[in-house]
Amino acid sequence: MSLFSRPGFDSFAESLAGTTLVDQWDARVAKVGDKIFALLTDGENRLCFKVSEESFEILTSLAGVSQAPYFAKRKWVTAQPKTDLSETDVHEYLTRSYRTVSASLTRKLRAELGIVD
Questions:
Q1: What's the domain range around 38?
Q2: Tell me: the pLDDT tens digits for 17-44?
Q3: Which residue, 19, 32, 70, 87, has fewest beta-carbon neighbours within 10 Å?
C-alpha cells in the first residue's frame, strides 16, 4: 500500500509507538507526543516530513521533492507521488522523521508512549 495514499499513510503511522493521526490544515497529520513528524496533503497526496540538514540539501535537488511550504526553515520537505524516491526510501525518511521528532520528547513521555530508545 502506497504511503502517498491515506490508508497507506495511516497504516504506516499507526505502526509506530505513541502516534496519533488528526485531520488538520487540509491534511492528514501524524504526530508523536503532540509533535508533527509527517503529513499527507488532501487532494494532491503529497507527503511532508522532517529531514536532517544534509538530507534536505540532497532531497531538494531531486525531481518531485521540494522545500515544504511553511516548514522549510525547519528542514522539512514535500515529496510528490511521482518523485525520484523509491517507496522504500520514502518509508525510511518517514521513519527517520519519526525518530528525530520522538527523540526531542522527554524521557518520561517517551516511556509513557511506549517508545523504546
A1: 6-109
A2: 999 999 998 899 999 998 999 999 988 8
A3: 70
Non-local CB neighbours of 48 within 8 Å, separated by 6+ positions: 27, 38, 39, 40, 41, 68, 71, 76, 77, 78, 79
Residue 25 lies in a domain: yes
Distance CA 63, CA 50 (A): 18
pLDDT digits 0-9 by tens, 89-115? 999 999 999 999 999 898 998 898 888
* The pTM of the whole model exceeds 0.85: yes
For position 83, which CATH number holds?
Answer: 3.90.1150.30
Residue 26 in any domain: the answer is: yes
Query: What's the number of domains the chain is made of?
Result: 1
- Residues 22 and 32 sit within 8 Å (Cβ to Cβ): no
Question: 113 and 33 in contact (C-beta within 8 Å)?
Answer: yes
For 99, the 3-state DSSP assignment is helix
Three-state secondary-structure class, residue 30: strand
Domain assignment present for 105: yes
